[in-house]
Amino acid sequence: MIHSSDKVTNTTTTPLQKCQFNGGVWRHKWGPQNYVIVSAIHDGFAVAHLPLRSPFNHKADEEDSVYKFRSTNGQLAYGIDWSFNHKINQLESNFMKSTVVCCSFYDNTIEFGELIIKL
Questions:
Q1: Pathway involvement (predicted)?
Q2: What per-residue confidence (pLDDT) applies to 1?
Q3: Domain count, the chain
Q4: With contact defined as beta carbons under 8 Å apart, do 98 and 84 qualify?
Q5: Across the 119 residues of the chain, what is the mean pLDDT of every consecutive 10-residue run?
Q6: Positive/negative CA dihedral, 55, 56, 57, 61
Q7: Rounded to an integer, what distance in angstroms lies between the CA atom of residue 96 and that of residue 67?
Q8: How far apart, in whole angstroms, are the C-alpha atoms of residue 109 and residue 107?
């Protein structure tokens, strides 16, 4: 049971993060380093970097970065997931490599790919 208290402040009216994806978001999966991967129904697949924020340290000039990496050629972007292989190697520690799987709604296929993100 959750009890309410008058000492609790509710800050849910102001979002900490807001990111624009065209076409409606059907599924999202969080990853390391504040990255999130998204299937946007009518706009394909994208990855976004969301900087850490709180109501106390939000900077108005900080922007979220959204990168579209796969279109669906008219199909509906439906499912997405990723698996991390961590750093590419010791010499390139500022990159993160992941295996991505995505699927669209009508063509009955899934696709596997590799996504490399510069940290």
A1: Protein modification
A2: 45
A3: 1
A4: yes
A5: 53 70 88 89 88 59 71 86 70 78 88 85
A6: positive
A7: 15
A8: 6
Instruction: Give me the DSSP letters along 87-101.
Output: ES-GGGTTEEEEEEE
Q: What is the pTM of this model?
A: 0.71
Which residues lie closer than 8 Å to 49 by C-beta, 6 or more apart?
A: 33, 34, 35, 64, 65
Q: Within a domain: residue 111?
A: yes
> Does residue 62 sit within a domain?
yes
Residue 116: the pLDDT is: 85
Amino acid, res. 9: T
Q: How far apart are CA 110 and CA 101, in angstroms?
A: 7
pLDDT for residue 117: 83
Residue 96 has a pLDDT of 83
Q: Torsions phi, psi of 90, nearest 5?
A: -65, -30
Question: Residue 99 domain-assigned?
Answer: yes
Contact 102, 26 (CB under 8 A): no
What is the spatial distance between Cα 112 and Cα 114, in angstroms, rounded to a whole number?
A: 7
Within-domain flag for 16: no
Q: In this structure, are residues 109 and 102 in contact, taking their beta carbons and an 8 Å threshold?
A: no
